[in-house]
Hints:
Layout: H1 2-44, H2 54-60, H3 67-79, H4 85-88, H5 102-112, H6 119-133, H7 143-151, H8 160-193
Amino acid sequence: MKDEKHSELTHELARLRKYIETTSLAKGITTAIKNCNLLFRELTKGPNLFREDIQAISVLHQPCSDDSVFLVKLGALAGLFEVSIEEWKPLLKKFEPWMKRGNTLLEKWLDEQEIAYDQKKVKVWDAIIRLRNASFPYHPTSKKLIKLVKFFGQKFPINYAEFSESILRMFLDSLEMLQTVLYNTQLARETATS
């Protein structure tokens, strides 16, 4: 009886720990998105970089228990890049018709402005979108899918809780990099005009 109770308590503590970690990642993502949007609007007098969708953000706070929750979270993350293309056109020196998502628009803008950024971390954004667009359930027969799964440090068979956490961590890391790049760009511009 004591061992059973101890095992139950240990399992419940592990679940609580996972919930706290997931919530912490989601909160970090939320804060970074707001900061990036604010900094970008200051720099460009233009639109938000990312959608601030309360439903998408609330989904990120949920622990990933299975493949269906994973897909919902992945869709929410990819949806953050769905921005108004028309609002972006005036910010770019040369708009290309294939630029349809916030991630490609942002990369183009950074390149045009000659702002240095970590291109490896930006690849996370495209990988999230490609993974969302991949056919499901995931099978280890597609070379493109295997490459995406490995990109996020995972392997087959997929543990969706670990996969979700890996994606969230890498996404948060990319947002923190972007936040630093935008802040340093803003600071440099302010210093140059003083």
